Amino acid sequence: MTQALITWGGWDGHEPDKVAEIFRVMLESAGMDVYVTDTVAVFDDPDYLQTLDLIVPVWTMSSLSREAAGHVSEAVARGTGLAGCHGGMCDAFRDNTLWQFMTGANWVAHPGGDGVPHRVNITSDDPLVAGLEDFDVSTEQYYLHVDPANKVLATTRTNVVTWYHSPNGSVDMPVAWTRSWGHGRVYYNALGHQANVIADGPAHEMLRRGLLWAAEGKALAAGQDVAQWQAEGNHF
Asked: CA-CA distance, 162 to 160, in Å (whole number)?
């Protein structure tokens, strides 16, 4: 059976327990065996992490040791999927650059705060968003520093709030993307400030597809090694 880990905690304002519950139901409905925990201590066990098909972090801010981030990185590189949303994945462990490199971005601002009306534009014909139409949300509009290697699935135009960034002009900010980390699949969606934002509708469906897609990578990586990407010395 497909094995998934959901670990939640950090800033209470993002309702990590409720978001974790949405993900648990989502994955169990797909037939996965899901373990839910409210500690990152689980990242201290590299052997356990490498048995997993999927890791779903729900941790805004907080801290993670260099060693623990390395354990997650090695598991993902060997095929374990990594998927999550909003601050629970790309505003997690702010002082850990390996985490930011692996996930593909880090949060820097949400001009206007919560409740900002904006449109999510589907920009890809990837199966992860196939059949979904552009849709409107009223929530935080994330401004992220993103990796140009990300395969962007959806964007939002950053012209809905005037602030100090405005003289630079509006940009199409990525909302959802995929990327690779070794043999592993990584999926992120910037929506999910609170549980109600992803409880149903297109945001929920995008995440459901993304989490399942990330988990499927483990089977595809079976029997392959990571030697082709390894080199002498540390890289983070």
From this structure: 7
Q: Which domains does the chain have, with CATH numbers?
A: 3-106+175-229 (3.40.50.880)
Q: What is the 3-state secondary structure (H, E, C) of 135-194?
A: EEEEECCCEEEECCCCEEEEEEECCCCCCCCHHHCCCEEEEEEEEEECCEEEEEECCCCC
Residue with tokens 């490199």: 101
Q: Are 32 and 54 a contacting pair, CB within 8 Å?
A: yes
Measured between alpha carbons, how far is residue 136 from residues 99, 183, 198 in Å? 30, 34, 13
Q: What is the pTM of this model?
A: 0.97
| CA 101 from centre of chain | 12
Q: Which amino acid is present at 110?
A: H
Residues 135-190 have pLDDT tens digits of 999 999 999 999 999 999 999 999 999 999 999 999 999 999 999 999 999 999 99
CA dist 223 → 72, 79, 176, 179, 219 (Å):
19, 10, 30, 21, 9
Pairing state between β 105-109 and 33-37: unpaired
Task: Give residue-wise pLDDT tens across range 67-109.
Answer: 999 999 999 999 999 999 999 999 999 999 999 999 999 999 9
Alpha helices in the chain (DSSP H): 16-29, 46-49, 66-77, 86-90, 97-103, 201-220
Q: What 3-state DSSP class applies to 104?
A: coil
Q: How far is CA 236 from the centre of its chain?
A: 20
